[in-house]
């Protein structure tokens, strides 16, 4: 439950392009946005804390934080990264990289269908840059063009239909968006990917520009877009 707002503002990665397809290693594109930090216990964070205690053998005092109007995946990663910092300050004999590895193991237990997008956000945050992420490959740093804030969340059911051609198309669209971030044509690609989301997961069809369906924890979020310079 949200308790109160902080006056702290942070720059943090959000998922921007890429669809969840079971057992498929397609690319995920991230961008950065600015958010207000809030005191908030998010879904999964208390379970994350319990598993981190079990993994490290430490029981440290933590602060539950989140991000206002951010996709759940971004807010969860921010919250759990704060918990990791609390544990390191508490004296856990591990490096930040080792703690991140533990965090990704916990992610796979709590959100097995969303491991790739979680890893993309963790990696982008660690690098401090927007990236193209694909599991097993080196992340590729891309341009920062858009910021986004959540308008609504939609629970994600099993996809209506997916075959090899649609899987390939979804991956190609993400790569094309990453290449054309500074091209006005990118909005047409954003709208095209919104159509793939609607066809695949029955999310509402968007009739306005500068909105984007993005991969979120156990669902998808519709975000309103701004050019980074205007954010």
TrEMBL record:
Recorded source organism is Sulfuracidifex metallicus DSM 6482 = JCM 9184
UniProt protein name:
Uncharacterized protein
Tell me the domain of life. Answer: Archaea
